[in-house]
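Format is chain and fold; as here:
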Amino acid sequence: MTGRLFREFSIVIAGSVAISAFVALTLTPMLATKMLKSRHQRSKAYNYSEKFFIWLNESYRSSLETLLKRKYISLIIIMISVVLIGILWKAIPAEMAPMEDRSQLTIRTTMPEGSTYEFNLAYNQDITKLVEQKVPEGDKVTSMVRGSMTFVRVVLVGPDDRDRSQQEIANRLTADLRKMTKARAMVIQQSTFGGRRAGQPIQYVLQAPNIEKLREIIPAFMAEVQDNPIFSMPDIDLKFTKPELQIVINRDKANLLGVSTQNIGQTLQLALSGQRFGYFIMNGKQYQILGELARQDRNKPLDLKSLYVRNNTGQMVQLDNFVELEEATAPPQLYRYNRFVAATVSAGLAEGKLSVRDLKKWIKLRQKCLMILSEQRLRATPKTLWKVHRV
């Protein structure tokens, strides 16, 4: 944070030093020859102020001589300074950087997995109407649908032209959006420091050696986050919301019927993958040859069991005799942090919660829902607090 706060100031200082060096080496010697003159008589102001500077020099000389004779005094001063630094470090509370009123808000909505474009558009329009009703201070409202994510960007009038602050408007919208339960919407304010991207102020990264271990930890962890009063609108990027159908082969039955797993895999690939077998030319145009069942023959999960596979004797055997279907869910996308499978929990701060001390209290929840951790690392950015756990 210190680097970002004083980035502009450091540029000013560097520029001032460069200009000062140029003036000292070029203009100052020339001006000194023109303006400075040898004077044998001093003015009354000089004689009056010179007494003070003589006294100051003598005081400094005497104190320096005393300190050199009693060198242990300097060690006592250093020890007292170190102790005071430690006491003040713990006593002075640290806080997150407060939000700057930039007259901009972004509402990001995560739609359910598999939702249609029409559903996303209609729900985004409902949020836009809510913003227009609840935020009379809005100057411009822009909505956008991008896949399973929708965005509503609100540009407010200037701070001098409205009675409510940006934070108050964001808190009111957050309370109203909680009542809309068809999708998960959150109000995001642009970071005080950093780039233009807006995100949640708190991010907590969970790491695990495999996805199964992470799937076991996430529910207990998210339950603790949602019950904690410090945070608002918690969310996680790793969601197990993508439905999938797993085909479990009974190898014993398949061996008795003379069917190999290779034949089963090839049958499923030919029936469902849409593999390209070649090309053909008709009326001067080239077309692809794709192997795939008709849509009406592969719409239902039970259609998989209706497929037939040839055994080692040349007979056709139905898949229903030796396969079982299991419904499961998987994440649409896997995330990694330092080459480990990871999930990032993001959340906003509740109203009036800016102290890092409150966050450190919340971090103790890992003792309830996580096993002994082999590595933990804390990385603080101007607005974001990261806590990394490897399970």
Notes: DSSP finds 13 helices and 16 strands in the chain. Residues 96-199 form a domain with the Alpha-Beta Plaits fold (CATH 3.30.70.1430). The CA atoms of residues 279 and 288 lie 4 Å apart. The mean pLDDT is 80.
